[in-house]
């Protein structure tokens, strides 16, 4: 018996991610918020969320395969990616640099969003949630990784 769910289902966890994304968008601006979410989703190997953020980056005119980022943007993106790949173990230098730029409340928001996105990825994987049809064109092969270019 398959656990597969044919479409992205409305759920409490996706609602939490949506609410927090809105706050992250207000904090970081649209472009950086999308890159932040995309790199977390990519790092967590989330087909559902990677496709969502990839679509939105493309609609913004960005190339999600080769993201050109400023040094201050890189700080935020690496922070989110490390949360997804290192189980919350953030190098002291990265954390210190982030806390020099953002308040404690803002750092908590970034951590909360990143961890909720990782949790939603696990939720989707556990229930084998399929990427909805409208996002299918934006799904990348599993082995593909986005490259970052510091400008």
What does this structure look like?
- With 151 residues, this protein is mostly helical.
- The chain has a single domain (12-130, 144-150), classed as AhpD-like.
- 61% of the residues lie in helices and 5% in strands.
- It contains six helices and two strands, in the order αααβαααβ.
- A two-stranded parallel sheet has the order 1-2.
- α1 packs across α2 (30-43).
- The longest helix has 23 residues, at 104-126.
- The N and C termini lie far apart (50 Å).
- The model has no long low-confidence stretch (mean pLDDT 85).
Keywords:
mainly alpha, globular, two-stranded parallel ribbon, 6 helices, 151 residues
Question: And the CATH topology?
Answer: AhpD-like
Radius of gyration computed on alpha carbons: 15 Å
- Count of helices? 6
Q: Strand order across the biggest sheet?
A: 1-2
Number of strands: 2
Organism: Runella defluvii
InterPro entries: AhpD-like
Protein name: Carboxymuconolactone decarboxylase family protein
Provide the fold topology:
Elements: H1 12-28, H2 30-43, H3 47-59, E1 66-69, H4 71-85, H5 92-101, H6 104-126, E2 147-150
Parallel strand pairs: 1-2
Helix pairs in contact: 1-2, 1-6, 2-3, 2-4, 4-5, 4-6
């Amino acid at each position: 018996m398959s656990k597969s769910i044919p479409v992205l289902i409305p759920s409490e966890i996706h609602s939490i991610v949506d609410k927090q994304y809105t706050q992250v968008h207000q904090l970081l601006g649209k472009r950086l918020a999308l890159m932040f979410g995309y790199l977390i989703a990519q790092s967590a190997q989330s087909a559902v969320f990677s496709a969502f953020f990839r679509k939105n980056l493309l609609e913004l005119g960005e190339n999600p395969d080769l993201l050109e980022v400023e040094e201050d943007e890189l700080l935020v993106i690496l922070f989110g990616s490390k949360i997804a790949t290192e189980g919350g173990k953030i190098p002291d230098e990265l954390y210190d640099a982030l806390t020099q730029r953002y308040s404690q409340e803002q750092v908590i928001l970034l951590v909360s969003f990143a961890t909720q996105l990782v949790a939603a990825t696990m939720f989707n994987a556990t229930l084998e949630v399929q990427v909805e049809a409208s996002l299918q064109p934006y799904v990348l092969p599993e082995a593909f990784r986005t490259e970052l270019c510091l400008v």
